[in-house]
């Protein structure tokens, strides 16, 4: 069960409207720092992050869908599909909602947008959470090579055949790749309704352009992304968290944390790329501790 938003609406931007929702509004008057949640993908929606509304009993929790994603406008203009454009949405949202103080949570590519934003040391940024973060292609591709080798041989053969032939839009390819998702994205069976809602609304064109045909096949524009030099410039408290079986592996995620002054790192046992779903109570307990100590 997940509660309805206490407030929802749209933030206008020059390229199109961003949809947002808020829970825990009563905490604004108490001076509690809002947690603004950035979904991944690129091309997903806020829905799979909705368990984070658990934290709204202590602070405002704000979700939004990035442009061309979820319930936001979809101009489908590739000129908008850049790191800089998605980073800019953070201040567009903050300014529209008068968020002078914020903590930021980014899952997967949500962290991709947070890294350059936090490195610029914006006013009022109290803390950041890098959850299963994609922050550089080189270590991710090394991890993918290792994790792919652990898949069953018939799955690898099917994936390789379609990747070589350029037929990654085939049902057979997607069925094979699902073995990766079950191991390294969400280990729950079945997947919860709110995660399936994200799948239903997924912006495939955006995903293919920026990422590629599937998680273990990174060949979009983000293959050239590397935020590692930015991480040393982050001046606010930072928490890096991932799952034990995450495609953003614990070893790589900890290496990112080690580049960030004073950062904390946690690997959630029994989870993969969505530890807030897979090990919800454990994850929320750790998130509360970090935010209570660093965001208020």
What class would the helix/strand composition place it in?
A: alpha/beta
Biggest sheet strand order reads 1-2-4-3-5-6-7-8
How much of the polypeptide forms β-strand, as a percent range? Answer: 5-15%
Separation, N- and C-terminal Cα atoms: 28 Å
Q: How would you sum up the global shape?
A: globular
In N-to-C order, the SSE pattern is: EEEEHEHEHHHHHHEHEHH
Q: How would you sum up the major sheet?
A: 8 strands, mixed
What is the mean predicted local confidence, pLDDT?
96
Radius of gyration: 18 Å
Number of alpha- plus pi-helical segments = 11
The proportion of residues forming helix, as a percent range, comes to 25-40%
Q: What are the low-pLDDT stretches, counting only 5+ consecutive residues below 50?
A: none
How many E-type strands?
8
Detailed description of the structure:
- The chain has 296 residues and is of the alpha/beta class.
- 38% of the residues lie in helices and 15% in strands.
- The protein contains 11 helices and 8 strands.
- The protein has helices spanning 83-97, 109-119, 137-149, 153-165, 171-184, 193-200, 204-210, 228-231, 250-258, 275-278, 280-294; strands at residues 7-11, 18-23, 35-38, 61-64, 102-107, 125-131, 238-243, 264-268.
- It has an 8-stranded mixed β-sheet, sandwiched between helices.
- A hairpin with a 6-residue loop joins β1 (7-11) and β2.
- α1 (83-97) packs across α2 and α4 packs across α5 (171-184).
- The model has no long low-confidence stretch (mean pLDDT 96).
């Amino acid at each position: 069960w997940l509660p309805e938003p206490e407030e929802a609406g749209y933030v206008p931007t020059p390229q199109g409207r961003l949809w947002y929702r808020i829970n825990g509004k009563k905490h604004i008057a108490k001076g509690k720092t809002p947690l603004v949640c950035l979904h991944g993908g690129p091309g997903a929606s806020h829905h799979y992050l909705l368990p984070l509304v658990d934290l709204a009993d202590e602070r405002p929790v704000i979700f939004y869908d990035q442009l061309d994603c979820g319930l936001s406008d979809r101009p489908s203009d590739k000129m908008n599909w850049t790191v800089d454009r998605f980073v800019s949405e953070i201040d567009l949202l903050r300014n529209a909602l008068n968020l002078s103080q914020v903590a930021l949570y980014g899952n997967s590519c949500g962290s991709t947008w947070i890294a350059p934003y936090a490195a610029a040391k914006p006013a009022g940024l109290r803390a950041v959470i890098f959850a299963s973060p994609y922050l550089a292609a080189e270590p991710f591709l090394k991890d993918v090579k290792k994790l792919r080798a652990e898949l069953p041989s018939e799955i690898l053969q099917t994936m390789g055949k379609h990747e070589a032939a350029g037929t990654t839009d085939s049902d057979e390819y997607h069925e094979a790749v699902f073995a990766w998702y079950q191991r390294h994205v969400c280990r729950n069976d079945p997947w919860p309704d709110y995660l399936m809602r994200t799948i239903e609304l997924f912006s495939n064109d955006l995903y293919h352009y920026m990422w590629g045909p599937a998680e273990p096949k990174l060949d979009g524009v983000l293959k050239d992304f590397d935020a590692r030099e930015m991480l040393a410039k982050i001046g606010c408290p930072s928490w890096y968290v991932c799952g034990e079986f995450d495609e953003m592996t614990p070893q790589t995620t900890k290496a990112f944390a080690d580049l960030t002054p004073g950062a904390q790192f946690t690997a959630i046992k029994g989870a993969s790329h969505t530890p807030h779903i897979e090990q919800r109570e454990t994850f929320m307990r750790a998130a509360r501790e970090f935010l209570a100590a660093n965001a208020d």
